[in-house]
Amino acid sequence: MSIIWQFFTVEDQSDTVAKCKLCLKGLRRGKFGCLPKDFSTSPLHKHMKSMHAVEYRKAEETALCEAKSRTEEKADTGPSGSVSKAEEADRYNSDDPGRKLQPEKVLGYQR
Ligand SMILES: [Zn+2]
């Protein structure tokens, strides 16, 4: 989801005009009558950069921070999840080497 939609609203998803929430100006996001797939947010970004640069930058920074905190949260749950998995793996490993290595050793000794 683009941060641009924090600042713009559309009455209809197929509406070519997006309304700026800050100055209530309507901005075309595509040629009149063009299909939603041809819509572009670049005019909206341009509008934000030229008209509401401060708000736009804040939103960008917030989005970045949220993205970071999300990845950090994921990273936090990831290691803790993988730690428990690693612990499980350790248990399995501590079991497995005994089960797997012994026959190998036996084979090795036998050979
Ligand atoms: Zn505006």
Automatic annotation (TrEMBL):
UniProt-recorded Gene Ontology molecular function terms: DNA binding; zinc ion binding
Keywords recorded for this protein, A-Z: Metal-binding, Zinc, Zinc-finger
Taxonomy, superkingdom: Eukaryota
Biased amino acid composition, Basic and acidic residues: 65-76, 85-103
Stretches for region Disordered: 65-111
Name this polypeptide is given: Zinc finger BED domain-containing 4-like
